[in-house]
Protein 1
Amino acid sequence: MYAKDAIGERCAIGTTDEITVEGIGKRFGSTIALDDVHLTVPRGTVFGLLGPNGAGKTTLVRILTTLLRPDHGRAVVAGYDVVHDAAQLRSVIGLAGQYAAVDETLTGRENLKLVARLYHLPRREWGPRAEAVLERFSLTDAADRPVRTYSGGMRRRLDLGASLVGRPRVLILDEPTTGLDPRTRMELWVYVEDLVRDGVTVLLTTQYLEEAERLAARMAVLDQGKVIAEGTANELKDRLGGAVLEVAVADPKDLERARELLVGVGSGAPSIDPARNTVSVAAHQDAQVVLDAAARLLQGEVPLQDIALRRPSLDDVFLALTGNRTAVEPAAAQGPKRWGRRSS
Amino acid sequence: MTEDIAPVRNGWDLGIRDILGMAWRNLVHIVRTPQLLVFSSIQPIMFVLLFRYVFGGAIKTPGGDYVDYLLPGIFVQTALFGGASTAVGLSEDLKQGIVDRFRALPMARSAVLAGRTIADLCRNVIVVLLMVAVGLLVGFRFHGSFVADIGAMGLVLLFGYTFSWVFAAVALAVRDPETAQLAGFLPIFPLVFASSAFVPVQTMPTWLRDFANVQPVSVTIDAVRALVTGAPVGHWLWQSFVWIAAILVVFVSIAISRYRTV
Ligand SMILES: Nc1ncnc2c1ncn2[C@@H]1O[C@H](COP(=O)(O)OP(=O)(O)OP(=O)(O)O)[C@@H](O)[C@H]1O
Ligand SMILES: [Mg+2]
């Protein structure tokens, strides 16, 4: 009931920032997890936080949800300072962490009712809130089974559901769709879009570029604790000079040789994508680049399958920004593209 | 700033409701894993049988049956070891990340720890009652007044509850369930065995006897023993209370301050 009034009021006020991060820094021993991070998220929008493994995404999420104190800097969420007003802030945010945080012994319904209870909702609300979430995430059939018997995806859905029981004003999701099948992932996207329509502000971290592009009005790229780019998907793509030259070689053995030959063509360093058998390099939208490249490869006697200029993908942007290519793994063929620094 | 969606209410009643919510959750765990309760009762039963029938004949106790000497020690030992379940449960929660969920909720910060220790207290009530039944079966009898006997069992449970906080602090320090249990028992073992739990301290070498006479487990066992045998309880009772208060103050603050930073 409060939620509706507040939303009405919020819409009337228009666009103000719901999340403001000013110069946040955090280190663990000698690791600098966050280094002078600045961000703003307008009310009622989705903000995507992207970055390779270890970039500091979870650290920022933990700071914004009061689980961790920043070493310096200031962050204000929904009007509350994350350090000084932590107690008040907790009643208006919902968090779904990177790893499902649900009770294995309780049933799904009991988990949700417990969360409702700890949000200090009146007792008569516990049941209906739990029921609504169970329905929303197609868990009604499994509602009265211990979570121990749930599949990974069901657990994940329950965890997301738990973050919504309190009808938060700001929802913070750390890799919310990791481990979900494509259908459930799509459903979640629709759900997030519904929430945003109702005025909720969402900050999500993701490794799925498709997800960021689909959901997030604005995004920031974190790398080694620093924000290295921020803007809309199109703004980020424009940073690459507008186009990417992509060369597909006939024989994977030629990839390295093709990369060497292409150094100096275009405006960046060429890079190899072994999964797709291609070498690509940022370039201006100019046919001369294609001719140049073709001439060099012809001279180097590298047989080609394809050569083309195309609009950059977000993946190209990340590659250019962080020097890392989308993770190449078999799963990538089924799900949306994953991007990250391989640890192995 | 718009109006808050949920009015922020901070108060004792909410704090207590959070503690009850968490205690309920942990009690459900205890009820749904009865096998744990069964197995944690087997060990003290073995101790009763071992000392009553194997070593008992060789141990001389001043005035009265050995079984009446032994069982108060067993009660306290059982309650103490029961505190270890606090370490295990808490570090499981930390490992599974559910503590992060709780810490991001607008609940009282102390509720996770208080709810846990209170649930473990309830669990200890069951185990200690079971040990009383076992004691009665092997010949133990209450000789104190009704109030003294009830008071003695209350002291046993309070002492176990106190050590739940020690185990909680240990769990928050080491975080891993197995390590937490092992580390928690490190100080417990010497306290239980270098005490008056199983044998009178008179037979110990002087330096050990001096330790055994003043340490918390001994004075508590002596107080409980005096209460249930109807003997004058003397200085043991207040010494035990001093220990309990001191341990609670130290370990509750350690546990809570560590909980804030996990
Ligand atoms: N509690 C901690 N103690 C020590 N180092 C930590 C701790 N938490 C994070 N770090 C370090 O801080 C850096 C950032 O970690 P963080 O978990 O924020 O990365 P991330 O972007 O969420 O990565 P991922 O995509 O793998 O989840 C890493 O180098 C990590 O090792
Ligand atoms: Mg992370």
Note: Residues A 28, 31, 33, 51, 53-59, 98 surround adenosine-5'-triphosphate (ligand 1) (CB under 6 Å).
Protein 2
Amino acid sequence: MSDVAPFTPAVRLSHLGDDVKTRIFEAALRVLADVGASVQHDEAVRLLQKAGCSLDSDGLVRVPRPAVERALSSAPNAFTLYDRDGAAAMELGGHNVYFGTGSDLMWQYDPHTGEHRPSRLDDIARVARVCEALPNMDFVMSGAYPTELDPRGVYAVTFLTMMRNCTKPLVIVAESEIDLGVIIDVAADVRGGRDQLRERPYFLAYVEPVSPLSHPAESVAKLLLCADAGVPVAYVPAPLLGATSPVSSAGHVVQGMAECLLGLVLHQHRAPGAPFMFGVNQGTLDMVSGQPSYAAVEGFMNYLTVVEMAKWLGLPNWGISGCTDSQAIDAQLGLEVGELTLLSMLLGSNLNHDVGFMGFGLTGALEEIVITDEFVSMNKKLLSGIPVQDEDLAVNVIAEVGPKGHYLRHPHTRRYLRKGPGQWRPRLLNRDNRDRWVECGGLDLREKARRKVQAILESEGPPTLDPVLLALAEERVAALKASPKVGSPS
Amino acid sequence: MSTTRHAIIEEIIEAVVEGEPEPVIAGVRRALEAGVDPETVLNDGLTAAMTSVGDMLDRGEVFIPDVLWSAEAMQEGLALLLPHLSEGASRSAGTVVLGTVQGDVHDIGKNFVGLMLSGAGFEVVDLGHDVTAEAFVEAVAEHGAGLLGMSAMLTTTMPVMSRTLQLLEARSLRSGVRVLVGGAPVTQSYADKIGADGWAIDATKAVAVAKELV
Ligand code: B12
């Protein structure tokens, strides 16, 4: 059980009938069995063969239906992520909805100067600090790529920075199985051992195959390492509509599912029952600007379908929220963040990353994280549904007040607000009249969000990490950086 | 130009814009039969059509795949026209060796740049992705390429570009080839820093820069 009650929407969105879902699934099975895929990892190919797949003379692996069915039946339909201290924090599965940031943004709107500048390591620390303080951010991804650092071992450094600056569970990116191995070692130290880490996973690894239908050695090696270590993994392709997938929504989902499910077959054959997260990223190539849109309506259509398919297959899903194509912290940002985030909540999408993304996955802004947090808070209320007990139906209260009366002084009103469901209070959105708003500085949402970010950054950070653990972790990362096996190909 | 000749040119333009190779070929053939100067067919027909397709893309009136189809249709027409053009005009824009650097699988942008360059008349030798500095340098030597285009989409893989430049230098090939770099993390200042000859933010600009460099 989680220490914090998970949010599960009472108001839900679902639009696909069983017949449609069956058609989509069957089409994905046909792609797996007839088209096949390129798997660039010998051991993985052998494992897949043992799982019933064939390696054919064209070099492609073909996956038959029973292999997929077996993997689906052994994969858990839920798993839990634990925080730095080992407390249960996210129960991923069912319609539970969680939010967090994305990774690797190359640019940031500086929270102090507003300048658009290359990302640095201290941005990762700030992202973690901000998420730690926000009640509706459940996990942390780096949010930034430290462009000032030597790329060798950079993802291990990133991991360490996140770990030091927040206690919430992490979602991580690694370059290969070598740095991933070090990250697992550090997490195991934090837990007090490999078995303890397996029992109480501290992070989920985000691994991507390459659309169309290609599974590079590094991706597969990371997937297998996660299976072995019992570390939860999301094996999620990012086909771009019309560029690396068919342009049709259904075709995009079918291909993406085939890519993800091949990963599932491999992963479950290696470690039946190990935690696996299903997903297909919803990218759309804008066919005029050439930009990979994170907020195109076609992408949203695919997303609705993918999340419904995940529920239908009984797998926890990888989702997306809180991002925009806008280059500014403006009304477009608000609108796109709102739409995608609301969709995730209505769908009961489990792990929703990329909060704080703008400008096609290249720029980050802490203000956007704060704005998304507010939006999630508001909609948790909306989607909890209306209670309809006698107290809520309030017939006797209506009778007591009668025609031409008012409710302001009625005890029911006060009780309801103070002890009952209350009224959702904005922390950023304006509810002041014009005069008061002007008196308070006439601040718009962007400025209020900026000030909130400042306040969080000025407040005390999370409890520091045990210095012995920290020293050990730093040693491990230093060894990785010095290893001839890692880092930039240069 | 007479009205019929003018009409033929218009037809060629329309066919290129529509991305239909057969009518382009038919149009070029008719133009040649009607005695239209081949240079005029090229400049006022095929090239003008591509310019207008580019403008249409800028205005959002066509999609990227439309441009690719137009470029291919244009190339079909050009193939027919080539033997009739003078030396100078018929020369291909040059050979470009292109690839995504080692350690990097991102190839959508690189593919797009390749399609646009071949649409603009370059011979494109596409080495795919995960290309080592050695492989770039060997391909430049083997194809006698005047241009090398490298794409990197990860901060971690950008150093391969500078390594390739060093290797070109070491093999005494640097002076014979113009080096163009691009990809989301790559900036003009990075290009300057590593000593590349050009950088472009997108595929359309890449064509313009490539043309300037050769
Ligand atoms: C699609 C995508 C993927 C796909 C790639 C599929 C493929 N076949 O290419 C997949 C899912 C496989 C992928 C994997 C990863 N990705 Co990725 N990916 C993207 C994404 C969303 C879009 C890239 C794209 O296709 N854009 C569309 C094309 C048309 O545009 P473009 O590539 O920018 O190219 C244009 C220009 O740059 C220019 N150009 C490009 N090349 C050249 C070359 C020359 C010579 C010239 C002149 C111009 C030029 O012209 C092009 C056309 O206009 C970007 C975000 C982004 N906005 O860039 C992240 C992004 C690049 N990925 C990122 C990351 C971190 C990864 C992974 C490490 C993630 C992981 N968990 O494993 C892996 C890395 C795998 C590897 N070793 O390479 C980060 C990089 C961060 C950084 N600082 O390095 C980004 C920025 C997203 C993010 N914020 O996390 N990714």
Note: Residues 38-58 of chain B form the longest helix (21 residues).
